[in-house]
Design brief:
Length: 1022
C-alpha cells in the first residue's frame, strides 16, 4: 500500500534513514515497499539489501518534482524502468531540459499523478494517487468515471511529531527562509507517516477498485538488479578496450613485452619471468581492459607533453612499469606482487594517476570524450550537515540574527546562550548530525561503464563541470562499478613548470622523467641528509626534514622508507622512533625472530609498509593471501574493515600455534601487526612519492631560481609564499616587487632577478592583473602613470595598491608624488570618457614640494599589501639591534647547553601529549637558516606564542641523531619599530604589526606513545 516513501536522501525533505524506514515497515508487517526519493536514486541499492534482509519485497521508484511542485511518482516495473527515469532527470540536471508536467512515454514504469496534476488522458501505465484525506473529493463529477485508474497514495516522510518539526526545519533551510514563512506547498502533510495496512484498507473500504489497483502495481513490480557477486571479478566497467577479451589479452601482451625490452633489455630473465607471471594473473582475472584503458590515458598524457605519476598498489606491478603507467621498478625495490594482484582479488588493482593541477582538466576532457559521456561520470559523495553549518542553518530557520548565528557556529556548546530557542536549535541540530545535506563530486574517482551509466543512476552537474553519479564509491563498488583515480597535485605542476622555465631561461632540456638523473645523485643526497628540502614534494615539512636529518638520509631506499614511516600508522605505533634507533645503531639489536630477519631485513625487522604486514601474516602466521588482504584493507584506514581485522585474529593465533610458535611469541607478533591498523603506505606508494620528491630535489639543487619561481607560481606547498621567496633569496635571487612594465600575472625570472607576479597582490582583481600584462604585450610598455591610466580601466583604490607596492618605480617619482598625480588625473573622471578626457585635457605638470619618505615606509607598504616585507628582512624592522648569541650553523656544538637566540617564526605545529598541548616551532635566524624548537605544556603556560614575528628564545639544545632541537624554557616576542607612515597617529602606528603572519597547523589525534611504552623487543624472542 506504500507507493511513495522518502528517506533522508530526499535532501532537506525526508527525515528517515533507509535502515529506519525499513525497520518501521517490518514492525508493521508490511511485505512490499516502494522507495521514491525526490529526483534521486541515491538510496535504492542500500534499500534493496535492507528490505531483503527482513523479507520485504523492495520496489524502486523516483518522485519527480519541479522545485516545490510534485509532478508525478515513477515506479519501476523492473530495473530498466529506473534507467528510463534516470535519462529524464539527467537531461534536466546536466543539459537544462525542462521537466515536463506530464510523464513521457515510459515502457517499464508505472506513473502516479497527484490530484493537483492530472493529465486529460491517462495512458495504460498511468494512475491517479488518492490520499486518505482526499476521499471526500471523489464525489465530484469529474472523478466519477476515473476510479478504475486510481491508487492509494499514502506518502511516508517522517515518523513522529518531532521529526515533522525537523522536516519543516529542513524545508526552511532548503528554501533559505524562516519557519514562520513556510507555505503549505513547502512542506509535507501531517499524515505522511506509516500506519498499518489494515487502517488504510478500512479507509478505502468503499473503493475496492482503488485497493486492487494498488496491490496489482505492487505485484507487477520488482527490483531485479544483481549486485557484484562475492568472489567474482565480473563487473559493470567497460568490458573490453578493443572488441573482445582475446584481443585485449593479445594487445596487453604485445605492449608488455615491448616495454620489457625498453626497460630491461632482452637478456633479463628475472624480469621476463615476472612479466609472464603477472600477465597470466591479469588475464585469468579479466583485468586486461582495465590495464589497457589506464595505458591509453597515460599515452594521451605523453602525447600532450604532460607529466604524470602512477601511484597506488599498481606500482607493485612490472607490467605497469613496462606499460609506462608507473616509473617504479618493482625488482629494484623487491615490491610484493601479491600486494598488487592475487587470485583472491576480485576488484581491479588500484592505480592512482596524478597530474599537475593545470593539466588535470584536459585529461578529464579526454577521458569523457574518448569513452563517451554516456558511459563516464565521477563518483558522488554525500556531504553531511557539519557542526558549524547545523547551528547556523537551524538557527537561521528559527529567525535568529546573524550575530547570534556567528556565536552558535564558532563557539563551543557550553558558551551558547541557554534561552528556549537556542535549546531548540541545539535539540534539532543534534538530530541533523549524519544527515546528508548535499551531493558533491568525489575528489578523483571516475567510473567508465559498459552500459550507459544512466542505466544505474541519474547524473548531476556540480559547478566543476563534470557529471557525477548519485551514489558514493562504496555503493559503486557494491554494484560492480570500479573507479579509476584521476588526481591532481601542485608538486607535479612545480616540476613541470620548472622544466619549461629552465628551457626558457637557459635553453637546457631536462628529461626529468629519466629517474637516473636524480636518484642517488651525490649533491641531492647531501641536501637530503641535512633536510635542505624546502619546496620539494612531500619532504619539506618540518617533521619530514627532521626525520631526514635523524636518518642522515643519503639514498633513495632510505627516502622510500622515510616516506612511509612519517605516516600516522607507523608513527602512532612507535615504530618510527624504533626505526630511527636501529638505522643509527644497526649493531645494537637482534631480530625478534628469524622470519622477521629473512623478510624484513631492509627495514631492520620493523613493519614499515603494508606489504611487511602481509609477509609476516603469511610467512610467520601462515595466513592465506585472502586473509592477508583483509589485514591490508584494515591497514589502509578504511574504517569498514577494522571489524574484519578482529575476525582474522583467532585464525592467526590458531595457525601460529600449529606452526609451533609459543603463545607469548604469537601475542607479541600480533601486537606489532595490530599497531598498523591505521594509515600506512604500501611500499610502491612510498616509492612513487620518493621518485617525485627526488625529481623536485634535483631541480632545486641544480636550478634553484627556476624551481623556487615555479613553487611560488604553483602556490607553494607546506609553507606560505614568504618562505619560498626567502628560500629563493638564499639561493642568490634578487627579489623585486611587481612592476607594470616587467611583471606578469605570475612571478617571472629575468637573470637573477625574480619579479613577483601581480597574483601576490591580495586586493588586486585577477581580471585587472591579467589585463596589465596583456595590454603591455599588445601595445608596448607604459610610458608614465598617465599613459597607464589612459590604457587600463582602473579606479583610484586599485591605482593606490600599485603605487604603494612600487609598480610605477620606473617613472623615478616618489610614491607620494605619484599618488597626488593619480588623484589629479582621476578627479571627476568617468570611465566612458577615459580616452576623450585624457586626450583633450592633458594633466598639468604641477610642481610639488619635495615629499620625503622614511627608510622603512616601503616595508610597511609591502606588509600591508602582500603580507610580508620584500625590501628588507623582518629583523630590520625590530627596535633592538641584538641578533642573538648563537646561530643555527653552530647548534650541533651546543648539545645539552643553554642558548639564547633571536629568530623569526615561520610555522608551528600543535601536538597533543598526555600532559596537554605542546607545539613544535620552525624558525629562521638572522642568517636565514632554519631551526626547530619544542614547546612543552609547562613552558607554554607562561611563555605562549603571541602571533607572527621575531622572538627572543631561551632554551636547551638537544641533538637527536644529528638533528638539533631547542627545548624552549622562555620566549618573548620582540617589538617592531612604529609604522613610520603614521608617525603622528598614535592609533594607527601599530596596526600593520598585526599583519605579520605565521603558519599554524592543529592536530586532533591521540598522543603518540613514549619510548618506554613501545616495548619493541631488541633481542631474539626466547
Amino acid at each position: 500500500m506504500f507507493l511513495n516513501c522518502h528517506s533522508f536522501h530526499s535532501l532537506r525533505y525526508g527525515t528517515l534513514s533507509v535502515t529506519e524506514l525499513v525497520r518501521q515497515a517490518e514492525e508493521l508487517g508490511i511485505k512490499e515497499l516502494v522507495l521514491t526519493d525526490i529526483n534521486t536514486i541515491t538510496a535504492i541499492y542500500e534499500f534493496k539489501k535492507e528490505c531483503e534482509n527482513v523479507g520485504i519485497k523492495p520496489i524502486a521508484g523516483i518522485e519527480v518534482r519541479k522545485e516545490n511542485k510534485l509532478l508525478y511518482i515513477a515506479i519501476a516495473k523492473e530495473f530498466s524502468g529506473i534507467g528510463e527515469v534516470n535519462k529524464i532527470l539527467t537531461a534536466h540536471n546536466c543539459y537544462g531540459v525542462e521537466l515536463s508536467e506530464m510523464a513521457p512515454e515510459f515502457k517499464q514504469v508505472f506513473v502516479i499523478y497527484p490530484l493537483s496534476n492530472i493529465p486529460e488522458n491517462l495512458k495504460e501505465n498511468e494512475f491517479i494517487g488518492i490520499r486518505e484525506e482526499e476521499l471526500n473529493l471523489l464525489i465530484r463529477p469529474e472523478f466519477k468515471d476515473k476510479s478504475h485508474k486510481m491508487v492509494v497514495l499514502h506518502p511516508v516522510t517522517f515518523s513522529t511529531k518531532k521529526e515533522y518539526n525537523l522536516h519543516r526545519i529542513l524545508r526552511a533551510i532548503d528554501n533559505n527562509t524562516i519557519l514562520s514563512k513556510l507555505s503549505e506547498d513547502d512542506v509535507c502533510r501531517k499524515s505522511e507517516y506509516f500506519t498499518s495496512e489494515l487502517n488504510l484498507i478500512k479507509s478505502f473500504v468503499h473503493y475496492p477498485e482503488i485497493i486492487n489497483n494498488t496491490t496489482e502495481i505492487l505485484a507487477k513490480c520488482g527490483f531485479d538488479f544483481t549486485y557484484k557477486e562475492r568472489g567474482s571479478t565480473e563487473n559493470k566497467n567497460k568490458k573490453y578496450y578493443l572488441e573482445s577479451r582475446e584481443e585485449d589479452i593479445a594487445l596487453l601482451n604485445t605492449l608488455a613485452y615491448e616495454g620489457l625490452e625498453k626497460r630491461y633489455g632482452l637478456e633479463n630473465e628475472v624480469a621476463r619471468k615476472r612479466v609472464e607471471k603477472e600477465l597470466k594473473v591479469i588475464g585469468d582475472l579479466n583485468f586486461s581492459a582495465y590495464f589497457l584503458i589506464t595505458w591509453d590515458i597515460v599515452q594521451h598524457s605523453n602525447k600532450m607533453g604532460f607529466m604524470h605519476v602512477g601511484r597506488g598498489s599498481g606500482a607493485n606491478s612490472i607490467v605497469s612499469y613496462c606499460l609506462g603507467i608507473t616509473d617504479i621498478c618493482p625488482l629494484e625495490l623487491d615490491l610484493y606482487f601479491e600486494r598488487f594482484l592475487n587470485l583472491n582479488r576480485t576488484a581491479p588493482p588500484d592505480f592512482d594517476l596524478d597530474w599537475s593541477w593545470q593539466d588535470r582538466d584536459a585529461m578529464l576532457e579526454y577521458i569523457f570524450t574518448k569513452y563517451d559521456k554516456e558511459h563516464v561520470a565521477f563518483c558522488g559523495t554525500n556531504v553531511e550537515f557539519k557542526y558549524k553549518s547545523i547551528f547556523r542553518e537551524v538557527g537561521k530557520a528559527f529567525g535568529l540574527p546573524k550575530e547570534e548565528l556567528d556565536i552558535l557556529a564558532t563557539k563551543s556548546v557550553n558558551e551558547h546562550h541557554s534561552d528556549k530557542i537556542v535549546k531548540q536549535v541545539y535539540e534539532y541540530g543534534k538530530l541533523l548530525e549524519k544527515y546528508p545535506n548535499q551531493r558533491s563530486m568525489h575528489a578523483c574517482g571516475i567510473l567508465i561503464s559498459e552500459e550507459p551509466i544512466t542505466n544505474y543512476t541519474a547524473l548531476e552537474m556540480p559547478p566543476k563541470g563534470f557529471p557525477i553519479v548519485q551514489f558514493d564509491m562504496y555503493v559503486a563498488e557494491d554494484i560492480g562499478l570500479e573507479k579509476f583515480d584521476i588526481l591532481s597535485q601542485r608538486g607535479l605542476g612545480t616540476i613541470n613548470d620548472t622544466v619549461k622555465l629552465i628551457k626558457e631561461t637557459q635553453g637546457i632540456d631536462v628529461d626529468i622523467r629519466d629517474t637516473t638523473l636524480s636518484k642517488n645523485e651525490s649533491v641531492c643526497n647531501e641536501y637530503l641528509s641535512v633536510g635542505k628540502t624546502i619546496g620539494c614534494f612531500y619532504i619539506e615539512s618540518p617533521a619530514m626534514r627532521g626525520l631526514l636529518r635523524r636518518l642522515k638520509c643519503e639514498d633513495y631506499i632510505t627516502l622510500v622508507a622515510a616516506s612511509s614511516i612519517i605516516r600516522p600508522g607507523v608513527a602512532q605505533s612507535g615504530m618510527m622512533r624504533e626505526y630511527i634507533f636501529r638505522h643509527n645503531h644497526p649493531d645494537e639489536f637482534e631480530y625478534f625472530h628469524p622470519i622477521f630477519e629473512e623478510h624484513l631485513k631492509d627495514t631492520y625487522g620493523i613493519m614499515v609498509y603494508q606489504e611487511d604486514v602481509l609477509k609476516i601474516a603469511q610467512y610467520f602466521g601462515g595466513l592465506s593471501l585472502g586473509d592477508g588482504d583483509i589485514l591490508r584493507r584494515a591497514m589502509s584506514g578504511k574504517g569498514r574493515s577494522l571489524s574484519a581485522l578482529q575476525k582474522v585474529k583467532t585464525h592467526f593465533f590458531k595457525s601460529c600455534i600449529a606452526k609451533g610458535h609459543s603463545i607469548e611469541l604469537t601475542t607479541e607478533a600480533y601486537r606489532q601487526i595490530e599497531s598498523f591498523a591505521g594509515y600506512s603506505f604500501c611500499k610502491a606508494h612510498s616509492a612513487s612519492y620518493a621518485v617525485e620528491s627526488y625529481q623536485s630535489l634535483y631541480l632545486k639543487v641544480y636550478y634553484p631560481l627556476e624551481f623556487m619561481v615555479s613553487v611560488i607560481n604553483n602556490q607553494g606547498g607546506f609553507y606560505r609564499t614568504e618562505v619560498y621567496i626567502h628560500e629563493a633569496r638564499m639561493s642568490g635571487a634578487i627579489v623585486q616587487n611587481p612592476c607594470v612594465n616587467t611583471s606578469e600575472f605570475q612571478t617571472v625570472l629575468k637573470g637573477k632577478e625574480i619579479y613577483l607576479g601581480f597574483m601576490v597582490l591580495q586586493s588586486l582583481e585577477t581580471k585587472v592583473a591579467q589585463m596589465i600584462s596583456e595590454e603591455r604585450d599588445n601595445n608596448g610598455c607604459y610610458k608614465s602613470l598617465e599613459d597607464f591610466i589612459k590604457r587600463i580601466p582602473i579606479g583610484i583604490e586599485t591605482i593606490q595598491i600599485l603605487i604603494f607596492i612600487g609598480a610605477f618605480r620606473f617613472t623615478g617619482k616618489q610614491k607620494n608624488e605619484l599618488l597626488i598625480e593619480a588623484r589629479l588625473l582621476l578627479i571627476n573622471f568617468k570611465p566612458e570618457n577615459r580616452n576623450l578626457m585624457l586626450i583633450e585635457e592633458p594633466v598639468q605638470d604641477y610642481k610639488l614640494p619635495e615629499l620625503k619618505r622614511e627608510r622603512f615606509e616601503d616595508a610597511f607598504d609591502e606588509l600591508e599589501i602582500i603580507g610580508f616585507p620584500v625590501s628588507c628582512s623582518p629583523f630590520d624592522l625590530l627596535e633592538t639591534k641584538y641578533r642573538g648569541a648563537v646561530f643555527v650553523k653552530d647548534l650541533l656544538k651546543f648539545h645539552k647547553r643553554q642558548v639564547k637566540m633571536l629568530a623569526y617564526l615561520i610555522s608551528r605545529k600543535h601536538v597533543p601529549t598526555k600532559k596537554g598541548s605542546m607545539f613544535f616551532g620552525t624558525w629562521i635566524d638572522v642568517n636565514g637558516d632554519y631551526f626547530d624548537t619544542a614547546h612543552f605544556p609547562d613552558s607554554l603556560k607562561q611563555y605562549d606564542f603571541q602571533g607572527g614575528g621575531c622572538y627572543l628564545l631561551l632554551g636547551t639544545v638537544e641533538v637527536d641523531y644529528h638533528f638539533p632541537t631547542i627545548t624552549i624554557h622562555k620566549m618573548a616576542k620582540m617589538p617592531m619599530i612604529p609604522d613610520p607612515r603614521y608617525a603622528y597617529d598614535e592609533q594607527k602606528k601599530y596596526d600593520a604589526h598585526r599583519l605579520v603572519r605565521e603558519d599554524v597547523s592543529m592536530t586532533s589525534r591521540k598522543p603518540y606513545p613514549q619510548a618506554h611504552e613501545i616495548n619493541l623487543p631488541r633481542q631474539k624472542f626466547n
